[in-house]
Amino acid sequence: MVSKEMASVIEQTRPLDVERIRKDFPLLERRFHGKPIVYLDSANTSQKPRQVIGTITEYYERHNANLYRAVYELAEEATEMFEAARGKLARFVGALDPSCIVFNRGTTESINLVAHAYARSVLHEGDEILLSEVEHHSNIVPWQFAAQATGARLRYLTLGEDGALDLSSLDSVLTERTKVVAITGQSNVIGTLPPLRRLADAAHTVGAVIVVDGAQLVPHNAVDVEALDVDFLTISGHKMLGPTASGGLYGKRDLLDRMDPFLGGGEMIMEVYRDHSTFKAPPHKFEAGTMNIAEEIGLGAAVDYLEAVGMEAIREHEKELTAYAIRRLEDAGATVFGPKDVEIRGGAVSFWYRDIHPHDLAQILDQDAVCVRPGHHCAQLLMRRLGVPATTRASFYLYNTPSEVDALVDSLARAQEIFGA
Asked: How far lies 414's CA from each of 305, 392, 417, in Å?
C-alpha cells in the first residue's frame, strides 16, 4: 500500500526527477570546507531520506514496545509494524511468502547464518564451495570457516579481461562435489553483474544451492528471487536507504525448515527443557532475542520510497551516470577497472588516477567536499587480480547527478597539480 506521501513522490519522479529526490535527503544539504557535499560513497552506505528518518522517529515516539511478548495494544502495534516491514521486503525481492525473510543486521550476518546453519550440516570432507575472486570478504571468510570446520575445499571462478566473470571453466569447476555456490549479485568494486539465473541453473544441475550476496544488487536493481531461482539472497538495508543494522536473508522455505537455529535465546523457542529445546518455525527460529525493531520498520519505509521512485527508473539513471563517469574519468587520465558496458555492470566505479595513491587522492578530494572511498574495499583477492594495492571508488545512487561527476573530475585535476603527477 503506497501512502499519499509516497504517491506524491511517484508523480514527481517518473521519469526520475533527481533534484526533487535530493530534497528528501537532509544530509545532502550540508557543506564542508565551504562547499556543498558531493556524496559518492553509496556502495559503502546510502544516505537516508526524511521519510525513513521520520518513520523511525514516529516509532520511538508513538509505538515503542517489544515484539510478540505482550497482549497490550502498544505491543500489538509494534508487532504489526515489524511484520508489515517483513512483508514489504518480501514483495520487494519477489518472495511470495514473507516467512522466507529472516530479519537480521544484513549481509554479513546472513552469510554467516547460511554458512553455519546450512552449510556445516551438509558439507563433508572432499565437498566443494564455489566462489569468485570478485567477492567481498563477507562472502569469503564465512566459507573459509565452514571449509576449515568440515574439510570442504574452496574453489574460485576467475575474472575475465573484460571485467565479467570468466565462465568458460564453469563446467569443470562445478561438479557433483560442489555443494554451495556463493556469488555476488553485483561487485562492490567494479560493478560486475554476474548472470545469476545461469549460475543458479548450473548449481541446481549438480545438486548445489546458490547463495547470492545481494548487498549491492538489491539496492540498485529490480530483483525477483522466484525468476532467478536463487536459494538464498542477502539484503543490506543500510545500502538501500534504510537504517544501519537493518536487512535480512531470503531463503527458500524448505531449506529454512531444514536448517538449525543460528543463535539461541528468547523468542525463537517453543519449549525449553533441562537438556534440550524445541524451536519455532522460520523465520522466528532465526530471530533470537530482541530484534532491531525500529531499524527494520525504517527499512520498510525505505522499500516504500524505492518502490515509489521505481527500481527500473533508478537503474536507468545509474546506467547513464556510470557511463558518463567512466567517459569523464578516462578522458582525465584515470584507469577505470571493470566492464565498460553499463548493461552488465552497476554504479560502483573504481579507478587509479595517475601515480597518486588512492588514500592520498581521497584526502585531497575531501578538501573539495567530494566523498569517495579509497582502499581495497574488503576485496583483497580482486585487488591482487587487478594488480593494484587499492583503488579510488566513486559509487552512485538515485540522488547523484552529472554535475557531481564533474566536481569529482575537477577535484582530480587539482590533485594532479598538488602532486605533480
From this structure: 37, 16, 5
Mean pLDDT of all residues in the chain?
Answer: 96
Q: What pTM, to 2 d.p., does this model score?
A: 0.95
* pLDDT score, position 10: 44
SS3 call for 166: strand
Q: Which of 141, 332, 378, 421 is catalytic?
A: 378
Q: Side chain identity at 204, as an amino acid letter?
A: H
User: Is 100 designated active site?
Assistant: no
Place of cell 523457542: 269
Q: What is the torsion angle, in degrees rounded to the nearest 10, for the CA atoms of residue 364, residue 366, residue 368 and residue 370?
A: 120
Give the domains, in start order, of the chain with CATH numbers. Answer: 4-47+311-419 (3.90.1150.10), 56-307 (3.40.640.10)
- Calculate ∠ Cα 129-377-194, nearest 5°: 50
Mean pLDDT of 302-331: 98
